[in-house]
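Batch manifest, entry 17 of 40.
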Amino acid sequence: MIATPSMFTQVLKPDIDIKMTEKQPSPATPPQPTALRTVVENDIYLLGGQVAILCQFAHPALAKGSYNHSSFATRIPQRLRNTARFLNVAVCGTDEEKKAIFGVIHKYHARVKGDDYTADDPELHKWTAATLFVSVVLVRETFFGRMEKGEMEELLRESAVFGTSLRMTAEMWPKSLEEFWAYWDYNIATLQVTDEARSLAKDLLYPRNLPMGMAWSLPLARVVTVNWLPERLRREYNLYPTLASQAAYLGIVAWTRTVYPFLPEGIRGRRHAMYMEDLKKAVQKIKETGHWAGI
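Output type: structure tokens
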């Protein structure tokens, strides 16, 4: 069955017997992200990027920090590349690479603060990690079928790395799927999409001066994004899927489910290979100059 917009909650949440689920103590350090490695190595998961970012911008502090401290509209490619460096080093990087990349990110975050927000807030990093986990689940269940409970639990445990690589402590991360979805539902129901967030959303979905290599995929990304957004956030952002976009979405899902598994690995992971090459260049630049500017 193909996931449709009205099935957002069903697509994400497995059938869980709460009585049979026991919370496990949070580990001192998050597990090695072996399941996430297969995710970041597979370019199709990049389709979840926009919905994750729009959910992040629904948090007023994240929106304000991005709006006030980044020329977002004119730096979309650079922002995406920097995000790819973070995601890939968190999941696939060596200790040396992590130290270099995370060090630069922490320096940048230290400058992003105002009277009522700071980019070093661990709660913001927890929410960012949550949106990344949900975006992965969306792509996985939409194109490859419903996840087993154990598979989703493993992915949840490993997704802590997106927060602990910043300032979130391991103890802050939800210890069970029930705890996570309660946290997610509360935030989706209560976060306020601000005018700053709506401005950033427009820049994200309709960027200017985007390289041709990225521009061709924008219509595809917009279709899946507006169909994946939670209903309340669609209203807040004023992003409603039309009948045409819903039809296109169903066509994209059907085509991808049929064709994508047969694509060569080199094609399915082409952009990941480019990002890993960029990551190594960035690390070398950091060693030489203390930053990655110019890469």
